[in-house]
Predict the structure of Molybdenum ABC transporter ATP-binding protein.
Amino acid sequence: MNRILKFDDVSVTRGKKQILKHLDWEVHNGENWAILGLNGAGKTTMLKMIQGDLWPTSGKLEVLGGVFGHISIPELKTKVGWVSTALQDQLHAGDVVDSIVLSGKFASIGVYQEFTKRDLQEARQTLIDLGGEKLLGKPYAVLSQGERQLVLIARAMMAKPQLLILDEPCNGLDLFAREELLNRVAGIAEMPNHPALLLVSHYTEEMLPCFKHVLLLRHGEIVQKGRREEMLTADTLSEFYGKPIQTVSMRGNRLAVYPK
Ligand SMILES: Nc1ncnc2c1ncn2[C@@H]1O[C@H](COP(=O)(O)OP(=O)(O)OP(=O)(O)O)[C@@H](O)[C@H]1O
């Protein structure tokens, strides 16, 4: 399948409020996208739709080759990985890390299905491959925020998703934990047959070079979308924010921005 996502004139309305307005956007296989938008821009609403938790009010949405209205949402959920701090609240804090990673195979919170020794081994290996070996066997409740996010990434990868959504994955991480997590994300982008990555963040410096495409969302509208070199510039971002900003180039071809 060549196309991961296709938004075709997609709008979402709740009551009198139009949350998303006429979105047109395509993500192709092998592309990693970052979405930038201020609070209330509509990012979460977009992500909820991609996972089948919310349907467009109008327009056509295609996810992983299936058009909404003609696809099985539970099946879709097994192919779309989701990492977000909101998900952390839903997990059972007393569960052991290994079992949380394993639950990704079933897209469930907790493991209620039968699983084999091999499944469990695969879950452990998935976490090891992401650099989380020392977390094996620990209860989720004792982990740091950065460790929890890594476990959630492993949980999502366990289902071998075609699309991995990283919804503000660095929320609450200290400087060093953030770099460590971003390094893991960069590692995923280098894996053979890795899922398409979709990162939502308020901070451009988290948009690693592997995110070669950026979408700028404001007040429910796509203001611009395209290659990172064109989106992550002082001019484009000043226009997007409607305020002058200054950019600071960071090591590793990353860009931080601040209000002027
Ligand atoms: N069910 C709803 N009914 C009415 N308004 C809603 C509903 N859901 C979201 N909104 C509004 O739609 C807008 C977009 O919300 P959304 O959560 O998608 O934004 P966001 O870009 O994810 O924001 P943040 O960065 O703060 O998480 C907000 O103004 C929000 O109040």
The mean pLDDT is 92. The chain is about 30% helix and 30% strand. Residues 14-15, 17, 19, 37, 39-45 surround adenosine-5'-triphosphate (CB under 6 Å).
